[in-house]
Design a protein that fits this description.
Keywords: Calcium, Disulfide bond, Glycoprotein, Heme, Hydrogen peroxide, Iron, Metal-binding, Oxidoreductase, Peroxidase, Pyrrolidone carboxylic acid, Secreted, Signal. With 318 residues, this protein is mainly α. The protein has two domains: 176 residues, Orthogonal Bundle (Peroxidase, domain 1); 106 residues, Peroxidase, domain 2, CATH 1.10.420.10. It contains 15 helices and four strands. It has a two-stranded antiparallel ribbon with strand order 1-4. The chain has a two-stranded antiparallel ribbon with strand order 2-3. The longest helix has 16 residues.
């Protein structure tokens, strides 16, 4: 397994230095002379958080996805509401599923103590998401850094840019494509659902209404998620290894045991079936593709000319 992760790093390095979507603004050596300890500080903070609660790794990874899909990876998701704007924290896709803000706050405090007014919240979140994956058994990759923090946030943008658990395959392909991410990227990134838990309200229609669902799996989930009530009851997204980053998610899809309708759409007689089968049988291929797709997603930046800064407090502008 260790050899596979070395190959992942080599593959991702090839993507990084090939240029392309990453853009000239980001660099793998951005903090070398300004805050050389930032990566070790973030790693230590995430190690502490995941040791206390393994689920927190999934939460931070989800936070990073939801940040990058709304106006780029700019830490806008971390901003509290103000008199001037209603932010992303209470948008439909985030209000009951994104958590771990206090973990980022704690890491930011440690980073500020070492390198004041130097490291953006957006870069801290990007590093924390990478380390969450690795600490739970997944690959690591060389992170491009140099992101800056948004001065505002948009609840409406969060409501409009994030795919939901009921999305069909065409919608998923379109929404990822709008971000410059290919169907292969989409299928690899969906493997983040190998971690974490979900609320009954997000998968009830799947276990009671979908035709493409394993009957025994549906019955198991129905025990804790009845047709009415219990909306906040949690279930693991990956029924096999919910706290380990591995390729079991894809094996679940082949067995019609995807928890969300949107998950099972990746294996439902469509264009991604063959790739799902490959990932189910080849953990190294999945890990390499996931890491490369994370680099590409992490390179999504705010539109040119957007005002940004390095926030001192991730919850509010300076």
């Amino acid at each position: 397994m260790a050899t596979q992760w070395v190959l992942v790093v080599v593959a991702v390095m090839a993507v990084l230095f090939a240029g392309g979507a990453a853009g000239g603004q980001l660099s793998t050596r951005y903090y070398d002379g300004k805050c050389p300890n930032v990566q070790s500080i973030v790693r230590a903070g995430m190690a502490q958080a995941v040791a206390a609660e393994p689920r927190m790794g999934a939460s931070i990874l989800r936070m990073f996805f939801h940040d990058c899909f709304v106006n780029g990876c700019d830490a806008s998701i971390l901003l509290d509401d103000t008199a001037n704007f209603t932010g992303e924290k209470n948008a439909g896709p985030n209000a009951n599923s994104v958590r771990g803000y206090e973990v980022i706050d704690a890491i930011k405090t440690q980073v500020e103590a070492s390198c004041n007014a130097t490291v953006s919240c957006a870069d801290i979140l990007a590093l924390a998401a990478r380390d969450a994956v690795n600490l739970l058994g997944g690959p690591t990759w060389t992170m491009q850094l140099g992101r800056r923090d948004a001065l505002t946030a948009s609840q409406s943008a969060a409501n409009g840019n994030l795919p939901g658990p009921g999305s069909d395959l065409a919608t998923l392909v379109t929404m990822f494509g709008n971000k410059g991410l290919s169907p292969r990227d989409m299928t690899a990134l969906s493997g983040a659902h190998t971690l974490g838990q979900a609320r009954c309200a997000t998968f009830r229609s799947r276990i009671f209404g979908d035709g493409n669902v394993d009957a025994a799996f549906a019955a198991l989930r129905q025990q804790a998620c009845p047709q009415s009530g219990g909306d906040s009851t949690l279930a693991p997204i990956d029924v096999q290894t919910p706290d380990a980053f591995d390729n079991a998610y894809y094996a679940n899809l082949v067995k019609k045991q995807g928890l969300f309708h949107s998950d099972q759409e990746l294996f439902n007689g469509g264009s991604q079936d063959a790739l799902v089968r490959k990932y189910a049988g080849n953990a190294g291929m999945f890990a390499a593709d996931f890491a490369k797709a994370m680099v590409r997603m992490g390179a999504l930046l705010p539109a040119a000319g957007t005002p940004t800064e390095v926030r001192l407090n991730c919850r509010k502008v300076n």
